[in-house]
Specification:
There is one protein chain. With 417 residues, this protein is of the alpha/beta class. The protein has 2 domains: 9-214 and 329-410, Aminopeptidase, CATH 3.40.630.10; 216-327, Alpha-Beta Plaits, CATH 3.30.70.360. The chain has helices at 9-20, 37-52, 97-112, 139-144, 150-155, 164-174, 200-204, 242-256, 296-313, 334-346, 362-365, 392-410, and strands at residues 56-59, 65-69, 79-84, 121-126, 179-180, 189-195, 208-214, 216-225, 229-230, 265-274, 280-281, 284-293, 318-327, 330-331, 351-356, 371-376. The strands form 3 sheets. Strands 1, 2, 3, 4, 5, 6, 7, 14, 15 and 16 form a 10-stranded mixed sheet that branches. Strands 10-12-8-13 form a 4-stranded antiparallel sheet. Helix 3 crosses helix 12 (392-410) and helix 10 (334-346) packs across helix 12. The protein is globular. GO terms for molecular function: hydrolase activity, acting on carbon-nitrogen (but not peptide) bonds, in linear amidines; metal ion binding. Zn(2+) 1 binds at residues 84, 95, 194. Its cofactor is Zn(2+).
């Protein structure tokens, strides 16, 4: 290890805090949802920083942002590293953004040494990782890896009826001179830094998490259909109350699916009631289900019970269950994990192996190239909240580890698969 710093920690933190000003909320968080004016502004700021170091911006049909440091062999599969710039409506400063800014800092620091890597190095910000404005999430990485088609992606709409296609066209119109890449290309490897979004690193006093993999996830959209009626005149026995049916369905799901074992994570999230009027029997309830487990067999069995339970408990209403996401648990590349652990050891940072309970774009990249993740602690394990926080020293430590692994890969022969 050279004594020369691998990164500029002050520059990293200053830029991360400047990025957090875009979409800043009064409570100190960030509301910068996918393909919004805020994300367009974030693109402009990040592209400006990248341009100062000679990185070239480009995009693709899915609205992913690529910032490229040219290598000696422009035809070789590049190294990819990054995360996402979009946030939850009441999100924090670090979820996604820390990964993009860490990747940019690692590459900018490498470029500043005046050495040309063997292959291109590409910082990437994936489109709509969060899935807060448009569902489901991770659209950009799924499109890139061929797991979801652009027709389906472009057709999705937000709560205001705006389609992803319309928002993508608006994004691309904002950057008329930017080069467009083909959708999906071969990559040598992918690296992603992220806050843990859980309490384990902080509790263990570890600065670095070497992520072993990501637990599996399934999501569903469920619609219960009943019939409207006057709250004062329609007899109880004659009602097809969609909200009452939803209550029965939700109770049964929590009782059975939510009690499978200690590792199951079952969540009913967004719920919409129609007509949502105080004196009208509800005619329609739609809601989302988020189901996660580290073991694919358990996840599959629990997921298979959801439709049956809904159909059993919904009458006299009807119910439709639509699967949205089916993402099995995955394991990250052992050689990259060893490199991350070695870099943490070289830099004298405490480290531990850790399974990711949250989903990340790296899950999809791992299907098409060697991939790995670096976790850093976040205060109280809190994320998707405005008080989300990571210490500057931890952000710098994770970025320095990322930079060392990147440097090892940047001047090494191709990874043998």
């Amino acid at each position: 290890m050279t004594s020369e710093p691998l990164i500029n920690a002050d520059r990293l933190w200053t830029r991360l805090m400047a990025l957090a000003e875009i979409g800043a909320t009064p409570a100190g968080g960030v509301n910068r949802q996918a393909l919004s004016d805020g994300e367009i502004a974030a693109w402009r700021r990040v592209i400006g920083w990248a341009g100062e170091a000679g990185l070239t911006p480009s995009t693709d049909a899915a609205g992913n942002l690529f910032l490229t440091l040219a290598g000696r062999d422009r035809t070789a599969p590049p190294l990819l590293l990054g995360s996402h710039l979009d946030s939850q409506p009441t999100g924090g400063k670090f979820d996604g953004a820390a990964g993009v800014m860490a990747a940019l800092e690692a590459v900018v620091s490498l470029a500043g040494r005046g050495e040309t890597p063997v292959r291109d190095i590409v910082v990437v910000a994936w489109m709509n990782e969060e899935g807060s404005r448009f569902a489901p999430g991770m659209m950009g990485s799924e499109a890139f890896t061929g797991e979801r088609g652009m027709d389906a992606i472009r057709a999705a709409r937000d709560a205001d009826g705006i389609s992803v296609g319309e928002a993508l066209d608006r994004l691309h119109h904002a950057f008329p001179g930017m080069a467009h890449r083909p959708l999906g290309f071969a990559a040598e490897a992918y690296l992603e830094l992220h806050i843990e979004q859980g309490p384990l690193l902080e509790a263990a006093g570890c600065a670095i998490g070497v992520v072993t993999g990501i637990q599996g996830k399934k999501t569903f959209q469920v619609v219960v259909e009943g019939a409207e009626g006057h709250a004062g005149t329609l007899a109880q026995q004659e009602r097809r109350d969609a909200l009452a049916a939803f209550a029965e369905v939700a109770s049964a799901l929590h009782a059975e699916i939510g009690a499978v074992d200690a590792d199951i994570k079952f969540t009913i999230g967004r719920v919409t009631v129609v007509p949502n009027a105080p004196s009208v029997v509800p005619s329609r309830v739609s809601f989302s289900i988020d189901l996660r487990h580290p073991e694919n067999a358990v996840l599959d069995a629990a997921g298979a019970r959801i439709k049956a339970l809904c159909q059993e408990k919904a009458p006299p209403c009807s119910v439709t269950v639509t699967p949205l996401v089916d993402a099995p648990s995955n394991v990250f590349d052992p050689r990259l994990r060893a490199s991350i652990a070695g870099a943490a050891r070289d830099q004298q940072h405490s480290a531990m192996a850790i399974l990711s309970a949250a989903g990340h774009d790296a899950r999809h990249l791992a299907k098409v190239c060697p991939a790995a993740m670096i976790f850093i602690p976040c205060r109280d394990g809190a994320s998707h909240v405005e008080h989300e926080w990571a210490e500057p020293d931890h952000v710098a430590a994770g970025t320095a580890v990322l930079a060392q692994v990147l440097r090892e890969l940047a001047f090494a022969p191709a990874i043998e698969v």
